[in-house]
Each structure stands twice: as structure tokens, then as C-alpha cells.
Amino acid sequence: MKIARVFIYFITIILLNSCSLSKAVKHLKEGETTQQNYSATFPFEIKNGFIIIPVEIENKNYDFLLDTGSPNLVSNELAESLNLKAIDSAKAGDVYNKKVQNKYTRLENVKIGNIDFTGTTALINNFNDVSVWSSLNIDGFIGANLMQHAIWDIDFKKQEITITDKESKLEIPENIIENKLFIGVAGVPAIACKLNKKKVWNFTVDLGYNGGIVVPFSEFKKQTENGEILDFKKSKTKGVTGIYGEQNTTRESYIGIINEIEFGNSTLENVQVYSEQYLEKRFGADFFKNYRVILNWDSKKIMLIKNIE
User: Fold this and answer.
1) Would the N or C end of the chain have less CB density within 10 A of its end CB?
2) pTM of the model
3) Taking the domains of the chain in order of start, what are their residue ranges?
4) What is the CATH number of domain 177-306?
5) Which of 285, 286, 243, 13 is nearest to 133 (CA)?
6) Superfamily (CATH H level) for 14-169
7) How confident is the model at residue 131 (pLDDT cuts 50, 70, 90)?
């Protein structure tokens, strides 16, 4: 099987242990929707493999990137224009553990579709200093700490999102792919999978990553060495571009084909994956774009419905 070259970018924020962490974690659990028994559907745009959605804050419209691998972020420019006041600050690191102090604030109301999300927290971040992100012309990120307060049905084929508080309001076929979600800090979801029957925990479900599946570097190397992965290409890379920019050093990386990935109640066959030294494991938007994706934080499950041509 021919292996294509992939270009990937990565947006994530990892809160680091500090005396301010517990306070930040508490704030990142806060929020709710004003409406009850609701369902709202709205379109989204895809830019460079990222989901861009319209949001309304203080009666003004903005473009935000939808990112399950991060908490809410607002740009420095937006925070200034809305006169957002900092609650506190917390040290946050990107995927390469580059550490930056980020102030965070409360968003009193964010309207998505016609649903009001109130009292959620957002980090104030200068992501527009990095050209990859400034080129998207976005004002911030809708992160997992807000998304966890609703059920999200993301239909990549129709480029529509439905948010609801009741799964019964969604038309879900009987035969679906389903996996358990593990919920981490700021509501960031993760799953477990088996790679060629080897159980691997804590793959982040990360729509803020426009690549496909990233597998652990040590596990990928082990399986190439013992002959379980035969179709692969090794290279040197500067890695993905993180929220604070790209790295100046090169590292070892692989693109390869895994024969079987057990994803919940289903087995995916002959799947292309990426593996890079120091890059954490995750499933990104380039994988999920082949499905209608339903995320339910309350029932702790992810459902995938294969797109039909």
C-alpha cells in the first residue's frame, strides 16, 4: 500500500502542575446551557482540516475553531476588545512541553447555534503570533470544557453540527461504531484502542489536530522491529506545529499501515497512522472526517457512523 506524506498541525494546551492548577481545574468544570430540552443545528466550515464554527459573544459574531483537545481559548485581541477581566493565571505547556503563563477569564455567555453556554472559562492566548494560526482568521477556540455541557453530533459529510441535551433527539442508526470515553482535565476526552491486539490507553479525541491517528512512538518502533508493521516509512521531521509554534530541532518519525485497530465494538483494517518521537497519541480530524461523530460526555461514549458515498 502506498503511503502518502501528511502535513499536520496541532493545537493543544496542557495545564501543568502548580499551586494554581487546582483552582484552574475547578473553573474549567464550570458552565451550563440556559436552554433545556433543546436541539440546534448549524453549518460549519473546514479550513486547513480544522472545523470552524460561528459563535456570538455580546451580540457580535466571531469565528472559532472547534477543539476537543483543549479548553476554550480567546485571542489577546478579542479579550481586549471585549474588555475581559482575568480571573487568575496558570502555566500551560504545548505538546512539546514549552511552558507559558496564560491568564484565564470567564465568558459570561457564548451563543452557538441558538444555544447559550454560560459561565465557561477561557484561556487568553497569543496564538495569532504563529502564522499557521493567524492565517485561519479565527478569534478563539471552543474547547472541551464548554462542549462537555451538551451532546455534539458532528456530520462531516453535510458539514453540519447538532447540539442537544437529549440523545433521543438524534437519529442514530442501529449498527454504529461505539467506544467508551475517559474524561480528563478541562473535559478533554480520550479513548482506549488495540493496535494489532495490543491495548493502548488514553488516545486523545482531538478535533484540534488536523492529522489522523498518532500512535505511541515506542509501540510503533516495537511493532516494526518484531514484524507486526511491515509497510512504513521512516523520516526526520521538525514535528507538528504546536500552539506556540514549530520546533527548531529534528526528531524521528514514521508513517505506516497498521493491520488492525480495535476501536470499541469495531475493528478497523489497514489503517494509516503517524508516529513521532515525543508526540502524544491521539485521533485527529483527518480520521474523524470519514464519519458522523457523536460525543456524549454524560454517558461517556463516542459514536461513529460511517459516511456513505
Assistant:
1) C
2) 0.91
3) 14-169, 177-306
4) 2.40.70.10
5) 243
6) Acid Proteases (2.40.70.10)
7) confident
